[in-house]
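G.,

No rush on this.
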Amino acid sequence: RDLAKGKAAVSNLNQNIDVVQLDVTDEKSIQEAVKFVTDKYGKLDILINNAGAVFDNRKLPSEITQDSLRDDFNLNFFGLIAVTQAFLPLLK
């Protein structure tokens, strides 16, 4: 999510690591990440798809808005599927 933090982590690890900014709820962001990996490596050995968040977790279920639930599902469910489907050809 935060490109600067990712680059700082790479610097601290002193490793050969690429940082790819990716918003799993944004199709353009997903496609840009796929293009980066495709152009640089041509394949992907493993996909760790661990984006996730909880919205309104301090509210009673009866108090959570439908918009908040949609945000949850867009990030935690549909985002996971979108990223997996986009990167799947690189895993084969």
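When you get to it, here's the other one too:
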Amino acid sequence: VFEIEKDVDDDLGIVFTKGTFDGIKRCKNKCIFCFVDQMPSKLRDSLYVKDDDYRLSFLYGNFITLTNISEKDLDRIKKLHISPLYISVHTINEAMRCRMLGNPKAGEVLKIIKELADAGIDMHTQIVLCPGINDGKELDKTLFGLAELWPKIKSVAVVPVGITKFQKNKNLRVFRFQEARAIIEDVSQHQAFFQNKIGTNFVYLADEFYLMAGWEIPPYEHYEGFPQIENGVGLTRLLWHNFDYAAKKLPQMIECPCRANLVTGRLAEPVLKPIVERINQIKNMTVNLIPLDNQFFGSTVTVAGLLTGSDIVTGLTRWRQKQTDVRPLVLLPKVMLEFERRVFLDGLTLEDVEKMLGIKIIIVEPTGEGIVKTILQMSCGKRVGV
């Protein structure tokens, strides 16, 4: 037995091989929008694991649906005050939630959330928004229903449904340009109401809505501490904010010319464009931004983290055919890789892609500080990469 004196917030420095000792609680739902069910076969096994475990929600911020939670689990959460939890709500319409989750128990979510709130458990919630299903008036009802449980429900993230070319549900589709703009306008009105009523925006839209609508990203203060950053809410503004601060370290010029290609998904092109423009103000430094299409999952998947090794090989090969200026140094965001094994979603390794293209790849931490750190290392001729 070891006795250790430490402050509450001090980390013990102990890393467990798994988040739980007795396995994880698996998801028993058949959600109409489940991204795991939209993946092709024969990928690595870990990609098909669907957890729905309140312990992982508390430890890592994983979202849970509460459809498989037992009375024993609820008693333990309340007794140990396991808080905050992250809840996938989607709708408070009981019949609709049962249909969306493909689970007859799904309609009990509001009852369970109220029970947790009464026990003092803080919650962050999310809504995966599907066109023509839980949007419009249904979204309004859900937002106002959840707001009644503020301040125990701290925030609501509204995230657009993701669709791959393997989606079998023909009733699902991505949001269109005008629809995204309408959602932003509606949610902005709700935010103004909540600010006046409870002093917080309460509901936040994922960056994807603003980007697909060509809408200005809200200011830093809008996100009120970024409670849903892991859900893609405020990532763009936080990246810009941190880059602007870190960019003060960038030199005005470097001695030897340095050239590289920065690869990303289509969605991130307007996000990274001002950053690349700032980097290219450094004399003798040239970074070219290359947004690639996702051939593996389909053109409706536009985020950088879902680009595969084959997408990069295909995309850069086509790019080379159009360009006379071929730059052998390629920068990739870390989110594209399962990093311990340096492998992409399709099973290709970093080394595979380098060999197939005859290039050197540098992995970049996708933060403002990470980008500046990589540029500084490149400009000094140091070994770079995370």
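The mean pLDDT is 92. The chain has two domains: 36-233, 254-380.

Enjoy the weekend,
O.
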